[in-house]
UniProtKB/TrEMBL annotation:
InterPro entries: AP-4-A_phosphorylase (IPR052908), HIT-like (IPR011146), HIT-like_sf (IPR036265), SAM-dependent_MTases_sf (IPR029063). It comes from the Bacteria. The keyword Protein biosynthesis does not apply. This is Bifunctional class I SAM-dependent methyltransferase/HIT family protein. One of its GO terms (biological process) is methylation. The keyword Transmembrane helix does not apply. Residues 164-271 form the HIT domain. One of its GO terms (molecular function) is methyltransferase activity.
Amino acid sequence: MKKPTNKYSHLTAIDRQFLSFPGRFLLERNRLQGQILDFGCGLGNDVKILSKQGFQIKGYDPHYFPDHPQNKFDTIICFYVLNVLFPEEQATVIMEVSHLLKPGGKAYYAVRRDIKREGFRQHYVHQKPTYQCIVKLPFKSIHIDESCQIYEYVHYNYQRHSSDRCIFCNPRKSLRLLTESATAYAMFDGYPVSKGHVLIVPKRHIANYFELPFKEQSACWFMANKVQEMLTQEFQPDGFNVGINVNHAAGQKMGHATIHIIPRYQDDTRGNRGGIRHVLPKK
């Protein structure tokens, strides 16, 4: 059976002369601060209107404005994008927004609440199959009505998640968070063994990786692919070691599962035998 494709999602963009409701909501509450990115801006209406009002705002859309931003932003807005994407595409957007957000910055997601039927439908203007789905996010909700819900997102290490003393449940603000999804985050290791050493951390507090629900394991490995792309772009390593320590005998020191993504460089293996097979000395 042929897998359905979602190549016409961009056709849901609407051309208008006024600011979107989520844009007005944030503007009236003074939430549009500093350097702003409209991620998935469609035809760029909000970007044009806010630019005329003096805001420092850039638009990105893979179809209409395809130059991917390279710098970080104080505020990121993402309006009605996730509703027209498949789950893996949604996760990719959330990870990219997290990666582009400055430490201490805020992102705002607006999602539709008036969708009556999920799935593909024939677009009434373009006569192409476009996709719609209901989206719920594990972030703080700052507005909801029958048509729209707006979520506020800040990096995981700028929140308090529990009263326990686990450093992975409550990572320090000083640690650099690379990206985040609904169920996991990736941060640079505080004691790196190589340049760009990253930990992927499931948000669920559990010591044994193999006891994580399969869906959350999958989310970690989906993030690993994204992390590899980010590290390759930033550090240009020659290779990677990827590994998990499970239990004390395997070197696990903290009672919270993590996945190590360790960039490797040509010069760091001279005179040594590298690779997973040599994790045990003299074997």
